[in-house]
């Protein structure tokens, strides 16, 4: 069991290349966390429901627990660690902070990446569209109200 | 104080720099528990392939079993071995642990361990467990009733026999999982240099965990350190001891290594603590004026297979017994409250503990009675709510000042009840069923050792201690035994301390959740931390403030009562003459020869606070629409009138209400842990156990009342659980109101579409059939 075949995978995460050796069965989430050291991507259910592990793959929000690392060679991956510009928070991060859009903070990276991917493609969503999109992910602390408020505020700021 | 300051906790959590337990296990070996697939049976053998590193109860024979204790005759102690020994008592119980070099390899290894179990007949439902021929979960007890508490005022039969109306019903609340989004987990490290073991764990009470680890493993507490990193939600599930944490600590010591246990969601749903599995039989006696005269209650709580440490399985039945009357004034009360063992996952406190269910019971009682009297539901509440304070309840609890009546009146006004009744009728004319439901309740919060001692707990929590230092640069560090995990306590305490010491909250650092760095305390649970740790912080700040003033007075040659400390300066009142707080701080360390005779150098203080407790109160009002075809319930509007005394940070308060109410709505409509008759758990994924998403949760409107009582020194009351306590009853009453013309009674939660459809099918033309 200990000599399972490992394969080399090249991942591009937040603009940086990572060369990792993983078993083919290793999920993207585990690879980001354990091989790349990017622990901002969290695991809440490992079966694709909670969305805490949401990242962007070629701009699309995906569940990193439902993908294998070997599927992601050549893709442009973005995680929460790449969201801020140096010390300047992304408008979504800033809006979550100002609107108390997080309590324990465990689901937060997933919500941030989900909303980032969505707003980059659809900068002018109405409230119903936003609610439908944000109902992809689970939060156990906030009751969602302030998450919606934060995303609305950030959407307005991102449009400029 | 009173300002919605953005939280100091947030920046790392927003950038991926939070550190949760699973983020910290680089270099560790990985544990995986082999769990029982059988609900009840005798272990014949555990077969472990030779090439695996694995341990069973036999290896851990020197580890004491968990034996939570109450010193009272109506509680029978039961034992839980940290790995199942001889018998298994629920599906998911840990039987063995394997150690491997990666999480995947650990899962592979666990699958190779074969546990041979001779199955026995299981018992799953608490009412079945009461039957005389029921399977017995703990042979030494001989039956399944481990808590059997009674209370009776006398005159019960007389009051019922002369009552004008008697309302009787059975109530059922199904089982829930608190479901923190981060499941449980820990990393145990043996330090070869010192021989100490550090447990990094996702828990709510690090000091209590250290004590019980020391007790069970027979180690001095000084050889153990418990550190709690960022915690991804807990809601009570991480307050009671996880046997897995004991095993991890033991394995680390045995292998002299670092080992990591990260629970997955399936394990969490199956083996982490459950809650709320209650059956009640209620009778209420009313006068012709709709005054509640007496309550007679038989409460049965399914406590699962074992008793939880430290609060014990008495926590739900005993709280239900004592707090059942809630905010209502009546003087005749009889109650029997039992805790019953079954072959299911153990119960532990979950946000609200028994109160979501007892509030549901009282609020359904009030609405059923109001219907009998042909009265609005708010009117019957007005006639029965407590109004004179301090109020001593029929069970002897003392309620400080609250705003019970005011909260109901304001909620009715905000919801515009008269207008709603017109709208409801208009909707009904079009075949749509709308309903409104109210729920008014008291939330006992911030209670110290006296309240816990009344339960005769062997481990009696309650006080909190704060150690405080102002360093030579004038910055403050407060170290506390409370262990916040999402409540924003680092921000609110910094506001409170900054306000007392005249420094900006950003200059106050809160240190918590590390037993090597903090004074002994009880952690964060039971809506207590802002009240109790906040009270201790206030006392410790006052000591430092007095010292700052004394030094400034001496330096400025003024009387201490003329010194004002504000905005980082101590000034002589009415003048510009003053000193920076930082200057005074430096002086106290570096020029201590100038301090008055007898004054110690430096600025340090320690204070402990241990209040009797205080009651918050609130009224929730929900408007729902019920779809008769699908059985779906949509929450259209949710209004809260909340009174938690003085608000330190209103933004954080509202956040607690939003989240609490969402969990209450979840319990009312969606979440249910289910077992089959063989004790197999059927809800082991988030596709079976259904927490609500944004799509299901309405906008929550909050209105604050601020009754300042002298029950706490800060004027603040706790409120972490209130949302979850009040919401289920408001929703249930609203659904019942929507269906009132059909005579459908809503006496079981959650009100899932399937359950509601069954209810609707059982009535025809307004008459119950079958």
In DSSP terms, counting alpha (H) and pi (I) runs of 4 or more, how many helices of chain A?
Answer: 5
User: What is the CATH topology classification name of the largest domain in chain B?
Assistant: Aldehyde Oxidoreductase, domain 4
Number of strands of chain B: 33
Shape of chain A: globular
N-to-C CA distance of chain B: 59 Å
| Helix-residue proportion of chain A | 25-40%
Query: Structural class of the secondary elements of chain A?
Result: alpha+beta
Number of separate domains of chain B: 3
Largest sheet of chain B: 7 strands, mixed
Shape of chain B: globular
What does this structure look like?
The complex is a heterodimer of chains A (160) and B (770). Helix content of chain A is 33%, strand content 16%. With 160 residues, chain A is of the alpha+beta class. Chain A folds into 2 domains: 7-82, Ubiquitin-like (UB roll) (Roll), CATH 3.10.20.30; 91-159, DNA polymerase, domain 1. Chain A has a 5-stranded mixed sheet, sandwiched between helices. In chain A, β3 (54-57) and β4 (60-63) form a beta hairpin. The N and C termini of chain A lie far apart (55 Å). The model of chain A has no long low-confidence stretch (mean pLDDT 96). The longest helix of chain B is centred in the C-terminal third of the chain and has 28 residues, at 529-556. The model of chain B is unreliable at 766-770 (pLDDT under 50). The interface between A and B is large, with 58 and 61 residues.
Annotation keywords:
heterodimer; A: 160 residues; alpha+beta; Ubiquitin-like (UB roll); DNA polymerase, domain 1; 2 domains; five-stranded mixed β-sheet; 5 helices; 5 strands; globular; B: 770 residues; Aldehyde Oxidoreductase, domain 3; Aldehyde Oxidoreductase, domain 4; 3 domains; seven-stranded mixed β-sheet; six-stranded mixed β-sheet; 33 strands; disordered C terminus
